[in-house]
Amino acid sequence: MGSADKTSNPARKARIEEMRRADQARERRNRILAIGGSALAVAALVAGGVFVVKSQSGDDGKDTSADGKAASGHFVTGADGVRTWEGKLGRTHVAKTVKYPTEPPVGGDHNQVWMNCNGDVYTRVLDNMNAVHSLEHGAVWVTYNSKASKADVDALAAKVRKTPYTLMSPDDAQADPIMLTAWAHQRTVTSASDPNVDKFLEKFVQGEQTPEPGAACTGGLPK
Questions:
Q1: Structure pTM?
Q2: Which terminus of the chain faces fewer neighbouring Cβ atoms within 10 Å, N or C?
Q3: Compositional bias of type Basic and acidic residues: which residue ranges (predicted)?
């Protein structure tokens, strides 16, 4: 069984590694800023003034989940077996729970915090609203249910850990044993050794479908 690293062309692999290094540098800067911010907060308390500022990255945080239009449309299946979402996929940061029309979801309104997706393997079910944010950053999400064999789960986990901009988690609500999801794209694979695993990773990890190419896959929710 090959890995996504081996199937990537040199230019693409170099680009992803460059983004990974930038992501790590961004995380280091954020830690430094957080330490500085804590010091400023202490100084403000000493001075007797406490100010609370609520901020959100990206859009204005308007909650549109109640209108049921976070995602609308349908899948169109290509000759390669990849299902492409035709229709609307919202990108608003929301607080209320979004009911997605697919499981796993392929996009739509989502939480403002993403799941870490730098080759992260989770053994718990994820909140779809955080995972969708990872898809927006160009990650591929590998999911499996209880019908997947332990051998396949272990092999997929090893592949994900070696591949930047990926994450993996169980999802017993999905229809098929193993599924691969990117923003607006999804497919089922038969096993970890299915050649379509590498093909999907090659095409969709930071692929052309990515709404926010180069956005961080660290600094979000951890394990």
A1: 0.75
A2: C
A3: 14-23
What is the 3-state composition of the chain as percent helix, strand, coil, each rounded to the nearest 5? 35, 20, 50
Specify the number of domains making up the chain.
1
Structural domain harbouring 121 = 1-223
Q: Provide the β-strand partners of residue 75.
A: 85
Chain-centroid distance, C-alpha 111: 12
Closest alpha carbon to 118 in 202, 22, 31:
22
Q: What rounded mean pLDDT belongs to the chain?
A: 82
Which are the contacts of 13, defined by CB distance < 8 A and separation ≥ 6?
5
Range with top average pLDDT, 13-27, 55-69, 93-107 = 93-107
CB-CB neighbours of 112 under 10 Å: 18
